[in-house]
Design the sequence.
């Protein structure tokens, strides 16, 4: 499966952005989709993941209550709605896919999108 992340940009603290991950080349509903991010000088970290049928989501504590992840299997897309953004949310955001159950470890994700930059100014 090929993944294409989009929707990043520059926003002021407290603002919102919506990231999308579009998939092609596979059966989308076979995959858990996760979002990860990597800030400058830091390791890539888990942000959120959604189950294959969209019925379950998992969030890192740092984004819980601010970010909402959803998927549309008919459109082969996943959307990460990010509200109340903070400067510490600044990073390159990646979507990734795995056939495993919802997990937070990047090592089990086999397919990755190219990343989209999110910058939150204070």
Sequence:
């Amino acid at each position: 499966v090929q993944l294409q992340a989009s929707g990043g940009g520059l926003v002021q603290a407290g603002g919102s952005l919506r990231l999308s991950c579009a998939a092609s080349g596979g059966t989308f509903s076979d995959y858990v989709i996760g979002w990860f991010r990597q800030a400058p000088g830091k390791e890539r970290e888990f942000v959120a993941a959604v189950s294959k049928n969209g019925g379950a989501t998992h969030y890192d504590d740092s984004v819980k209550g601010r970010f909402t992840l959803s998927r549309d299997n008919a459109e082969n897309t996943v959307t990460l709605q990010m509200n109340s953004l903070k400067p510490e949310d600044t990073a390159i955001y990646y979507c990734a896919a795995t056939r495993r159950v919802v997990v937070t470890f990047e090592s089990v994700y086999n397919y990755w999108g190219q990343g989209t930059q999110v910058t939150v100014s204070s």
